[in-house]
Amino acid sequence: MVSQWGIKFAVHLITNHFGKIVAKVCETLLRQGPLTLELLIRFTELSKEHVKNSLLVLIQHNCVQAFICEGGDVDESRVKTQYLVLFDNILHRPRFPKFMEIVLQELDKHCEKVLEGLLRDGRLTLKQMIDRASQGASQENDSAVVADAVRENLCKLLMARYVERCPAAEVTIVEEEIITKKRGAKSDQNFKAPETTIQRVIEAAVPGDAIRFSLTADTGCNSDEETKPADINVAENNEKEQLILWRVNFEEFLRYLRDKLLIENVRARMDDGAATVVRAMLEATRNVDKRVKIENSVPLELDQLFTEVIKTENGLQMTMDRVKAYLVQLGCSSQISFAYTIDLKHIIHLARNEEVESIVLKRYGRDAYRMFRHLSKEKQFCPTDKIAESTLVEKKEAPKLLNRLLKDNYLHMEKLNVSVVGSNKQTQLLMWRVNQPLLWEYVLDEMYHAALNLSLRMAFEQEKDEEILNVPKDKITASEPLQKKYKRLQNVCLLLGSSLLKLDDALMLFHDF
Amino acid sequence: MNRLRESSPQRKRQKVSPSLTNEESILYNLIYSKKDIGIWTGDMKRETNLPVTVFNKTLKELMSKSMIKEVTTIQNKGRKHYMAIEFEPSKEITGGNWYTDGKLDTDFIAALKDVCFKYISKQKVSTLDGFLEWSKKNGIFNSEVTPTQVEDIMKTLVLDDAIVEVTSNGYGDFASIPVGRVCYKCKSNVKVKGELKYGLVPYIPCFACPRISFCSPDGVVSPRTCVYYDKWHVLEVIHI
Fold first, then answer.
1. Domain boundary, last residue among B85, B102, B119
2. Looking at the domain assignment, is residue A298 inside a domain?
3. Residue A199 covered by a domain
4. What residues of B are in contact with residue A389 (Cβ under 8 Å)?
5. Residue A455 lies in a domain
6. What are the RNA polymerase III Rpc82 C -terminal domain coordinates in residue numbering (chain A) (predicted)?
7. Same domain for A447 and A426?
8. Picking from A258-267, B50-59, B127-136, B185-194, which range would have the lowest pLDDT averaged per residue?
9. Could you tell me which of B3, B200, B184 has the C-alpha nearest to residue A509?
10. ipTM (interface predicted TM)
11. Is the pLDDT score of B161 beyond 80?
């Protein structure tokens, strides 16, 4: 369930990129959940043409996925296509510069150009990519050379999994039967949260790994079917290859950014050695599990990990014992046949806690920060006096600070009536605790709110001084007031832009990782 | 710091004075029965039912005979609280080791924290015993500082995120510390004054703003008209 400010922020992004009509369709889908075309028209009160075109835009930019839900009591003749908005993909839009920077660092500027086209247009065929490149290239370049270069760059991007085949245009999911299970200890142990419609639709739409990242056109057949090489006509195949739609694989970029965060967090908390071990572990298991939200790293044997560690500059001086010692410090378990695994969820939780704590420090001061950290560590209800004693905060001040944190939803409080020993009197104890999952949701919503406000202010500042952007540079340098105004606008855009980028890092930490 | 020497509560046997009047012994017995918790004058009046003038006179008499003493409570400093002379005020009354006259001794705590932090920064890694040994050897404190007090200080430094509690692995900085021993280490991202360097969002305009809950495009405060932004811009321009 997306929070209120999350929806507002997503709608703001879509309004900025595609206008108000598309944003209205998007907002309706975000607020109402998956809808059919008829219902969308009714809810948005827009014309059929407008809604249809808006959906096409959103699908082109990977923000909407169509699906059909079969099964249940629904009459088969009445089964209709529904449209599901992909909130995460909308939030990825301001991250495009980050994704391009990654490709520039990891691959080269030619691949970055191909990626830029895909980010700008959402979905492209190889032919469209070649056309795009041909327009930008000088006339001397032979079109065949350009085509080969684009093909090669696309191959590189596919190898690195930064680009993937577009998912099926429309998928069919079967409505799950509600099975009432017997309650008991055994069923509790095996309990797994049911998949949401979004998860099921996305999973069904994504092609199998074998063809998802393959440029060679074994098209026309299902990923489960076998293709006989003799049956494939080369010319026909090339033609089909040109028609395959490609898009950016956001998951891979998020995984890259998640790994970076994990490594830097360990470096800050521990040292370079520990960070080297974590990097090696993630690098060695990179192709085994490509998901972003995983609790533990893929198990790896010590020998394999050591081989990966000594490949790095920092790891060259490390001995096997030292790597083992770092693994112990990282709290790694080696229960599965001498293979080690790192608790990634724990590191992410630590990073989230650090973020929330730094907010508490800035807003409520050092005493409140100490009390908050104490409660975070205790993970249970604590009485006011005990908190003040453990954190060396004045006992009269402690309740005031705790109440401020409670008012702003940073703490949870319960009142407890206890009888005083040796008398009939009853006294009330205030018990405090940090409810992490609820708090993280609240902080995430605050982040969406701040991101929306920052974005609106940035647009306002640019709008306010729009005329100065159209003034020629030599005119600006000649006039002092103009120069001052220009410098101010530059600084404001720099500050707000960098703030938005930082806030986006925090958004990913709380929402995507 | 001298107060630390008197901090351990010592109980003596109750001395029964034969020269007490009836009212005096009623009041004294009541105060004595409350032991190291003591009793407030309001409660005394209610429980003894003595007329106000008699009550005040009796209380004065007991004070002059040095049989009771006035103590300050951290719960209510304005209220007069009395206790038999034989008892030392309990932790509930004084607030504990770190309180003097019902007030948290922040100067003492800050001084101790500073010494501990500087020692760990210099040593890179230290155990609790290592610090105690060093402070004893160099006569850092005028009065005796107990291991529990140092432990309290280390814990608050950990909560301040100035130092971290780690287990020795026997390598590098931990070479002189046996493997598995709990020790304290300075955080690499802490400046000298213990100021945090990281944190993505607290310094972001809007997020740090206390009025964010009122601020929305159609709210009491709007991002377009917000006056605080100019403040942020000025501040940041100075930094640039």
1. B102
2. yes
3. no
4. 96
5. yes
6. 152-334
7. no
8. B185-194
9. B200
10. 0.71
11. yes
Structural domain harbouring B170: 106-186
CB spacing of A495 vs B152 below 8 angstroms: no
CB contact under 8 A, B159 and A446: no
Which residue, B85, B78, B88, is CA-closest to B42? B78
A265-280 confidence digits (pLDDT tens): 888 888 888 899 999 9
**Residue B193 lies inside a defined structural domain of this protein:** no
Q: Domain of A132: which CATH number?
A: 1.10.10.10
CB–CB of A88/A10 below 8 Å? no
Closest by CA to B156, choosing from B103, B114, B127, is B114
Q: Residue B176 has which token pair?
A: 């002189």
When CB atoms are compared, the residue of A358, A395, A495 closest to B199 is A358
Q: Does B43 touch chain A (CB under 8 A)?
A: no
pLDDT tens per residue across span A211-221: 888 877 554 44
Question: Regarding predicted confidence, which is higher, A510 or A422?
Answer: A510
- Give how many domains chain B has, as a whole number: 3
The verdict on A218 and A111 lying in the same domain is yes
Q: Are residues A241 and A273 in the same domain?
A: no
The domain tally of chain A equals 5
Mean pLDDT in residue range A172-199: 57
CA-angle at A105, arms to A98 and A277, nearest 5°? 95
Distance of CA A155 to the CA centre of its chain: 25
What mean pLDDT do residues A166-173 have? 82
* Domain limits for position A464: 438-511
> In this predicted model, what pLDDT tens digit does every residue of A102-154 receive, in sequence order?
999 999 899 999 999 999 999 999 889 988 888 866 665 677 888 888 989 99
Q: Which residue of A has its CA nearest to B172?
A: A322
How far away is chain A from the Cα of B159, in angstroms, using its nearest Cα? 5
